[in-house]
UniProtKB/TrEMBL annotation:
Transmembrane segments: none annotated. The keyword Magnesium does not apply. It comes from the Bacteria. InterPro entries: AraC-bd, Homeodomain-like_sf, HTH-like, HTH_AraC. Coiled coil: none annotated. The keyword Transcription regulation applies. Keywords: DNA-binding, Transcription, Transcription regulation. Residues 179-276 form the HTH araC/xylS-type domain. PROSITE patterns: HTH_ARAC_FAMILY_2 (PS01124). This is AraC-like DNA-binding protein. It comes from Comamonas odontotermitis. Pfam families: AraC_binding (PF02311), HTH_18 (PF12833).
Amino acid sequence: MDSAAASTALMAQLEALADCPLAGECLHIKAQLPHTVKSVQVERPLFGLVLHGTKRLSTGQQAVQLRAGDVFLVTGRCHIDAHNAPDPVSQRYLAITLNLCDEVLHAARILWAQPLLPDDTQLIALPAGSLADALHTWSSALLQGHYEQARAALVQMVIWLCRQGHHALLAPPPPRLADSVRQLIAAAPARPWLSRDVEAALHLSGASLRRHLAAEGTSLSQVLRDARMGHALELLYTTALPIKAVAARAGYQSVQSFNRQFEARYQLRPADIGNH
């Protein structure tokens, strides 16, 4: 098979993940309208692939432009502005994203077994062909529901990227209480969270919770809002749920309040993504 045919076959296999119920680890980001979403909070290394349309990602330090067939990685905690645009012919925007889980990163650190060099890279962009073998193995394993093989392929992918000098992927971020609070809320965003619920779950007093979050430059109300907004953004990109249902699943009884807070958070109206 020549390189063009191999590339086409790989893209078709990756696109099949969007309709595969076994590919539960992946998010399939869809949009029908060009739009920009501001200050998306990324908590951990993130892998993605553009299948249809174009994407531009930018942080305060870097910007990358991506088209169909390009892979992107976010190396760790940051805020990102993203512009997504459907293909002008097919009118489709489709990307696959996947959080690199602790098991994958831990295994890659063990196998790398070398000092990590200073690396402040936040965004990595490269053609899918650079990772063709790993992407083929990963997507084939997911399509068959072989998750251990899929994660092994991700480990090899991360190690290959480290060989190219991208050590930031394996640098563990400093622990933050805000991350633990966010994970707790993200597991049940519709729950009517009160401070005492978080205090009990994390075995902290109210004063300790407030003091630690303040030291990290945030507050419980801000973490609660960010966790709910992040869940809502994921639902808007990956489902065709009505906005009222998205608001309810994110913990908002009032659609008007949800729309207002969403637009203030991302400088984008929920309807502007165009999936509803």
